[in-house]
Amino acid sequence: MSDPLTASQHTAERAAGPAATIAPEKGRATLAGHFRILRADYWIKNVFVLPGIAVALIVFPQACRPDTLWKVLLGLIAACLVASSNYVLNEVLDAPFDRLHPTKCNRPVPAGTVSIPLAYAQWMALMAAGVLLGWVVSSALSLTLLSLWVMGCIYNIPPVRSKDVPYIDVLTEAVNNPIRMLIGWFMVGPNVVIPISLLFSYWMIGAYFMALKRFAEFRHINDGIRAGRYRKSFRYYSEGRLLNSIIFYASAAMMFFGAFAIRYRPELVLAFPFIAWVIAVYFNLSFKPDSAAASPERLYREGWLMVAVCVCSAVIIALMLIDIRFMHTFFSPSLPTAWH
User: Fold this and answer.
1) Fewer beta carbons under 10 A from the terminal one: N or C of the chain?
2) Looking at residue 195, what DSSP letter applies?
């Protein structure tokens, strides 16, 4: 069978290697271009840090001290710096592929408004600043921030470049969710790990969001060959395959959340309908033309989604604080001892 990919695609793939092969098409490097590759509007993703903070303060109320707010502010700044380091690397290494995308071709690197050597210096400087700032709060926070940066390298840098591998691309990007939860936890909590079931649930819900982002991107491009030129994993994906994976991730997220709730906080079972509401609203959002699911930085504009998220968050926080004794009795083991 002949290779359906064009010469421009193979050229773009070869360009994803060393920085020297990534030549801008036009324009000249500008301060504005270097600022734009920080993707400051993407810092909204650090909202996934907040559940870690909330859980830590609920489980360890003694962690709420006069310096807690200061630690949270430093931690959030550090998280934004490390996230921007990853975004800079993504902008540089994705430039050859972004030129094949209907809208991302206007990003600063494809447009030639970024100096590649300076961008690499920017990448390292942002990482160092974020990790060192995290160290001011705690060593555990600093190491967790470093792990977020390492995952960015795994996701973007050849020959690993996990973003090119179907399913692995979603899972390695989504693992940033539990890392962000740990970042929030270590801002205020002790140096002990959150229950694994909760971290896995957070990982799977992140995979659900990321797979829906892929689904929305695939539908937006609306051309299988062109989509494959832009993102290697799209050569394998189809709408059906992505939808199947989306169902798997949502189911796994709820299963792990249920395991956490039953063992640690049965009251959280009452939050399931509200979580399902958020999942359903987000799923519906991915079918819209030019969906915000493909550009998460625009999600705050989606009114119904914001209502669902706020209500769900309020319910979860309330259930973490209020004891409902009959829930503990209702979900206590009832099988004979031999089955336990």
Assistant:
1) N
2) P
Phi, psi of 67 (to 5 degrees): -95, 5
78/145 Cα distance (integer angstroms):
8
Entry field: residues in the chain = 340
Per the model's pLDDT, the better-predicted residue between 334 and 255 turns out to be 255
Listed residue (205, 209, 202) closest to 179, CA to CA: 202
Task: Take residue 198 and report the two structure tokens written for it.
Answer: 């909760």
CATH 1.10.3720.10 assigned to domain 32-192? The reply is no
CA distances from 262 to 219, 255, 312, 313, 327 (A): 38, 11, 18, 19, 9
126 close to 145: Cβ distance less than 8 angstroms:
no
- Contact indicator for 182, 269 with CB cutoff of 8 Å: no
Q: Any idea which residue has 């734009």 for tokens?
A: 36
What is the pTM for the complete model shown? 0.83
- pLDDT surpasses 90 at 75: yes
Tell me the two tokens of residue 36: 């734009």
Write out the two tokens for 62.
């003694």
Distance from the first to the final alpha carbon of the chain: 57
Region of 231 on the Ramachandran plot (φ > 0 left; ψ -120 to 50 alpha; else beta): beta
Measured distance CA(206)–CA(176) in Å, rounded: 8
Among 203, 209, 195, 205, which residue's Cα sits nearest to residue 264?
Answer: 195
Give the tokens for residue 291: 């969906």
**Model pLDDT for residues 183-239, shown as the tens digit of each residue:** 999 998 777 778 899 999 999 999 999 999 999 989 888 888 888 888 889 999 999
The C-alpha atoms of residue 97 and residue 107 are separated, in whole angstroms, by 11
Cα separation, 77 vs 43, whole angstroms? 10
What does the domain layout of the chain look like in residue ranges?
Answer: 32-192, 195-326
Q: How far apart are CA 263 and CA 94, in angstroms?
A: 43
